[in-house]
Amino acid sequence: MSTHPSRPIYDVDLKALHDPIKAELDLAIGNVLQHQRFINGPEVKTFEKELGDYLGAKVLGVANGSDALLISLLALDVGAGDEVIVPSFSYFASVEAILRVGAKPVFVDIDLKTYTVDVGDLMSKVTERTKVIMPVHIYGLACDMKGILDIAKSKGIYVIEDAAQAIGSRYIDVETRRKRYLSTIGDIGCISFFPSKNLGCFGDGGAIVTKDEDLLEKVRMIANHGQVSKYQHEIIGLNSRLDTLQASVLLVKFRCLDQWNIKRKIVAEWYKELLGVNEKISLPIVPDYAEHVFHQFTILINADRDQVLNELNQRGVPAKLYYPKSIHEQKPFMEEVIEPLSNTKRVQERMISLPIHPTLDKQDVEYVCNVLLDLLKD
Questions:
Q1: Pairwise CA distance, residues 322 & 303, whole Å
Q2: Would you say the pTM of this structure is higher than 0.85?
Q3: Helix (H) or strand (E) segment spanning residue 208
Q4: Burial grade of 5 (CB within 10 A; 0-12, 13-18, 19 or more)
Q5: Measured distance CA(302)–CA(294) in Å, rounded
Q6: Alpha carbons 318 and 77: distance in angstroms, whole number
Q7: 3-state SS, one letter per residue, for 141-174
Q8: 3-class secondary-structure state, position 5
């Protein structure tokens, strides 16, 4: 058993992440306090352009990732009578927006190795009422977008990418090796800037991504009370803006995103090297069509998961469960008969997410792994 690190291990250590860039963050926030343009200030447009240039698409900043999903559904005229195919293995926000527009979520199972959408099960869930497929790039790993797009194009179905956890991650065409950023592959992509995300602000924030100029103008109008110009309202919209203070923070942190994602990958490799020797542990798989930015490092264990989780926490390892209960098992769906999702159930019974962030060092990872391996001894 290795010695406990001299400092606590956190699941997210925002202070350690921000300390090296504190002067830049202070200056950026100070500039906003100086010009006082808290709504639609210059930093918002600058951030939208920089992120758009990086992704190779157009970007609209909104109040949060949940609004990004809702506005995207509204822009595609999704409503009562429509079906949206979505994994049940995700955060509730993925489905919340579907319910808000009056559509029906149709739950798809996940692949056991990647925890992303099972394309075979997806094909079986398509009906004449399917209007949108909403793949979730869970934990920062790309879904099988070729398989999803092949189905969508053949059936005339829209694709909204839930890339809330996947900024900076890319999908790879296995034939051409061309790489495309997640959120730019479907009709619309949605990103969250919640503080714990790979790129997070100092509160709530989100973005909508598209290459379609008409869709961009429509989501912009919806997010601004349905206005085409001030006091001229064409449709019923809502108020969802990325505020200037958050944009100023994101501009500073965005310049660190790639280096932070690289460090996450390094931490993940440390975990794989140290844990790959244990047959009771199934490590996350990265298929040849995907990159992974490891918003979470989630493993499956062949043991009493809850007991192991409790022991890890007791020994100073902040392991978590993302997500312990399927969306279709939540209260709003309790009276519905929903086809069992066997892979989803199996993953949720065996999964544990180990701490991963750019400020972990190898000693931290070694301690986490040694504790876990000790708990899994016969």
A1: 18
A2: yes
A3: strand 206-210
A4: middle
A5: 22
A6: 42
A7: ECCCHHHHHHHHHHHCCEEEEECCCCCCCEEECC
A8: coil
Structure confidence at residue 228 (pLDDT): 87
Residues of the chain with pLDDT under 50: 1
Instruction: Give the C-alpha distances (Å, rounded to integers) separating 210 from 160, 184, 218, 342.
Output: 10, 6, 11, 34
Token pair in block for residue 368: 């986490």
Best CA proximity match to 51, nearest among 257, 267, 301: 257
Distance CA 259, CA 320 (A): 25
In eight-state DSSP terms, residue 186 is: S
Contact (CB, 8 A) for 197 and 68: no
Task: Identify the pLDDT of residue 14.
Answer: 97
Q: Is the peptide bond before 322 cis (omega within 30 degrees of 0)?
A: no
**Can you tell me the distance from the alpha carbon of 43 to that of 334, in angstroms, rounded to the nearest whole number?**
44
Res 372: pLDDT: 98
Q: For residue 338, which of 351, 350, 324, 326 has the smallest C-alpha distance?
A: 326
First vs last C-alpha separation in the chain: 16
- DSSP class per residue in 292-350: B--SSEEEEESS-HHHHHHHHHHTT---B-S-SS-GGGSGGGTTS-----HHHHHHHHH
Q: Are 146 and 289 in contact (CB under 8 A)?
A: yes
Q: Which residues contact 88 (CB under 8 A, 6 or more apart)?
A: 95, 107, 108, 109, 326, 327, 328, 329, 341, 344
Q: Which CA distances in Å does 245 have to 180, 240, 242? A: 29, 15, 9
- Extract the tokens encoding 292: 């992974």
Q: Give pLDDT, residue 329.
A: 93
pLDDT score for 3: 63
Distance CA 51, CA 49 (A): 6
Residue with tokens 């103008």: 217
How far is Cα 89 from Cα 343, in angstroms, rounded to an integer? Answer: 10
CB within 8 A of 266, min separation 6: which ones? none
